[in-house]
Amino acid sequence: MYKIFFALMCCIGNAYSCDFCGGSPSVMNSDLLSIQPQSFIGINTNYRNYKYANPENGLNRTDLLSTNLTIAYAPKKWVELRANLPIIWMSNTYKNVNENTFGMGDMSLIGNFKAINKSADGEKRKVGHIFNVGFGIEFPTGKNKVYANNPLQNFTLGSKSTDFLFSGVYSMSYRKWNLMGSGLVKINTRNKDEVRFGHLYSIQTGTAYIHYFKNSQLLPNAGLRVEIQQKNLYKHIIQKYTGSNALFFQYGADYNFKKWNLGMQIQHPFIQHTAANTIKQGSNFILKCVYMIQKKNQKTKQSCN
C-alpha cells in the first residue's frame, strides 16, 4: 500500500510560477504533499510555456524547463524530511532573437507529518483515511537576473527572499480506488530589492485507480487544481500586470515496479486570468522518476518471507 503514495503525489501536480504571476519558476514542487512517509531519491521535470498577448520590449513567448532533484528521508513511519533543488532552463523569445538562461532555483526543505492514519483492512474497516500536514522553508539560492529596462516583468530563477510553505492532504482509499484533496500555501517575504512576490494558494482534488500486475502496479489518475497567485508588490506598490487565477484539468499515470516509480502527467488550464489577461499559460507536461530506499528492517522482513 505504501507504493500508492507516489501516484497520489503525481495526481496532486506541480506548482511553478513566474515573477509576474506571484513567485519564481522554482516556487516549489507540489509532490512535497506525500501520503506515506518514504525514503527516496527522485527527479521531476516540468515543461511550461507562456505567450504574451501584448508583447512589451518585443517579448513574445517564454518557455520554462525545470528539473527538480529531491532527496527524502523517513526516520519514522509518521514523518518524512525532504530537500528539493530545482535546476531551471528558461528561454525568452523576442521578435527574431532567443535569450536563454540556465541556473539553480530556490532550494526548499520540507517536513511532512502524519496526523491521521486509519488503513483499510478489508474486514472491520473497508475504507482507509489518511491526513498529513507539511511545513517548509524556501531559501534564496536561485539565480536572480534583473533587467534594467523592465525589472518586474521578466522571469527570474529565484526570488531573493526566504519564504514559507504550508500544506495539508487528505486521502481516502476504498478497494482499488483512492480519492484525495490537498491544499498548499506559499507565503513570500520582501527581498532586498523591496519586491514581495505574491503569495501562492493551491487547492486540488483527484482520484487514482490501482491495477495490479504480477510484480508491478499501474495507477492512472485524474483531477482538478485551482491555483491563485497574488499580485506582486514593489515598495508597497501593487504591480498591475502580475497575479494569476487558473483552473487546471490534470491527468496521467504512474507505474511501480520493484523499487522504481515512473510517472507522467499533463495539465491543461481551461480557465485562466493571468497578468490582467496579458499572458496566456500553455499546457504543462510533467515526467518523474523515483527510486525508493528501503530500511534494513524492511529488507530483512522481505528476505525472510
What's the arrangement of secondary structure elements?
Blueprint: H1 4-12, E1 40-52, E2 61-76, E3 79-93, E4 98-104, E5 108-118, E6 127-138, E7 163-174, E8 177-187, E9 195-196, E10 200-209, E11 211-212, E12 216-229, E13 233-234, E14 237-238, E15 244-257, E16 260-274, E17 279-281, E18 284-292, H2 296-304
Brief characterization of the structure:
This protein is mostly beta strands. The protein has two helices and 18 strands.
Task: Walk me through this protein's architecture.
This protein is mostly beta strands and 305 residues long. Helices cover 6% and strands 56% of the residues. The protein has 2 helices and 18 strands. A 12-stranded antiparallel β-barrel has the order 1-2-3-5-6-7-8-10-12-15-16-18. The chain has a 3-stranded antiparallel sheet with strand order 9-13-14, with no helix packed on it. The chain is globular. The N terminus is likely disordered.
- How far is the first residue's CA from the last residue's CA? 17 Å
What's the order of the H and E elements?
HEEEEEEEEEEEEEEEEEEH
Q: What fraction of residues sit in β-strands?
A: over 45%
Got a strand count? 18
Alpha-carbon Rg, integer: 20 Å
Comma- or semicolon-separated keywords:
18 strands
